[in-house]
Amino acid sequence: MFRAILLFAMLAALMPAARALDGIASDWRMIGQGEMRWFGFQLYDARLWAPPAGWSVDGAYALELRYARDIPAQRLVQASIEEMSRLGAEAAQLPRWRAALEQVFPDVRPGDVIVGLHRPGTGAEFYHQGRLTGRIDDPEFARAFFAIWLDPRTREPALRARLLGQG
């Protein structure tokens, strides 16, 4: 009985990511996962998904974030823009990217899941609770956005290592 409950809980935790990837990547596998903390407070759990061939920075992949706290959309947007800027994004692009992120990011509550899907050569799609919130058709945006977690210069190298299955 305990195993059945545990299996159900694990499947329920994966549902939002599965819904976002359904029909696109139903055979993808989780590469790694980790927790993001800020001053000791848990912000979210992260999972990186990739096709059977494996993860590649230039390939298709999905980053799933399951939030542990209330965070307003504007704060998510601001933090994303600050990190993309810190990692070298061109200042001239940031206002356009900010406006695009404001269209796709909702306010989040504990348990909410946002999945960002990297579409090589196209851009990114974003899902909240399994529903598409928008697309940003700009490959340079997608590279800069996912670099927040996956670039070697990320602020959270331990999280990056766990996401990539290295830690």
Strand and helix layout:
Layout: H1 2-21, E1 29-38, E2 41-50, E3 61-67, H2 73-86, H3 94-104, E4 113-119, E5 123-128, E6 131-136, H4 139-150, H5 157-163
Helix pairs in contact: 2-3, 2-4
Task: Report what the structure shows.
The chain has a six-stranded antiparallel β-sheet with strand order 1-2-3-4-5-6, with helices on both faces. It is α+β, with helices and mostly antiparallel strands and 167 residues long. Residues 1-17 have low confidence and may be disordered. The protein has five helices and six strands; from the N terminus they run H-E-E-E-H-H-E-E-E-H-H. Helix 2 (73-86) packs across helix 4. A hairpin with a 2-residue loop joins strand 5 and strand 6 (131-136).
Q: Care to give the gist of this entry?
A:
The protein has 167 residues and is an alpha+beta fold.
Uncertain spans: 1-17
Please describe the biggest sheet, giving its number of strands, its sense, and whether it closes into a barrel. 6 strands, antiparallel
**Average pLDDT figure:** 88
Computed Rg: 15 Å
Binned strand content: 25-35%
Structural class: alpha+beta
General form? globular
N- to C-terminal separation? 32 Å
Order of helices and strands: HEEEHHEEEHH
Q: Given the structure, what is the number of helices?
A: 5
Beta-strand segment tally: 6
- Side by side, the strands of the main sheet go 1-2-3-4-5-6
Helix content: 25-40%
